[in-house]
Amino acid sequence: MKTQKEQTTPSISRFNQETTFNKTPFIKNTKMKTRILALSLLLTVAFTSTFANNEIGVSQKVVNSFKSEFAQAVEVKWENTKDFAKATFKLNDQVMFAYYSEAGELLAVTRNLIAAQLPINLQSSMKKNLKDSWISDLFEVSAGDETSYYVTLESADHTVVLKSNGAQGWTTFKKEKKATL
């Protein structure tokens, strides 16, 4: 007959038999996890490179033209319409917009401005038009060899868009009366 100590303590050989793991399922699970991880990484890299390019739907002609024209541009985002492709980008810490035809021809470049960036004669003549108005939008459009400026002036009862071809002065491009409540 066994003593109480012998009955409660399993023998070492019995312990080893009971606690030995079947290594085959463990190895299979590890291989499966490795395959899933590798597939996940592969898909992540594929999707990231596809969407990071952000040139989806834009012809290679347009992209090449943009890259040759604005080699130092960063943070480029593309939008494509049936009439043109639009690139929004930063150049020298200035947000700009470039418009291209399907053939890769640069149609125009625009950028938002502050009043102090206007030519001096346009600044002074705009101040004459500012009576009880404020500037809500001001941007520059460069197309070919021409540069135009557009400013939107608003007051309590109307909105006026002025246009200037070069630095020759302002003309009324559009005028609207605001709806009253």
Summary?
With 181 residues, the protein is α+β, with helices and mostly antiparallel strands.
Outline the secondary-structure elements.
Blueprint: H1 4-8, H2 12-19, H3 23-53, H4 60-69, E1 74-80, E2 85-91, E3 94-100, E4 106-112, H5 120-129, E5 134-143, E6 146-154, E7 158-165, E8 171-177
Antiparallel strand pairs: 1-2, 2-3, 3-4, 4-5, 5-6, 6-7, 7-8
Assign an overall shape: elongated
Name the helicity range: 25-40%
- Main sheet record: 8 strands, antiparallel
Please identify, by name, the CATH architecture of the largest domain. Answer: Roll
Number of DSSP strand runs: 8
CATH topology annotation of the largest domain? Nuclear Transport Factor 2, Chain: A
Q: Give the oligomeric state of the chains in this entry, treating copies of one chain as homo and distinct chains as hetero.
A: single chain
Number of domains: 3
**Which sequence of SSEs, written as H and E, runs from N to C?**
HHHHEEEEHEEEE
What is the highest CATH level, the class of the largest domain? Answer: Alpha Beta
- Uncertain spans: 45-53
Please tell me about this protein's structure.
- This protein is of the alpha+beta class.
- The protein folds into 3 domains: 43 residues; 50 residues; 69 residues, Nuclear Transport Factor 2, Chain: A (Roll), CATH 3.10.450.
- Helices cover 35% and strands 34% of the residues.
- It has 5 helices and 8 strands; from the N terminus they run ααααββββαββββ.
- An 8-stranded antiparallel beta sheet has the order 1-2-3-4-5-6-7-8, with helices on one face.
- β5 and β6 form a beta hairpin.
- The longest helix is centred in the N-terminal third of the chain and has 31 residues.
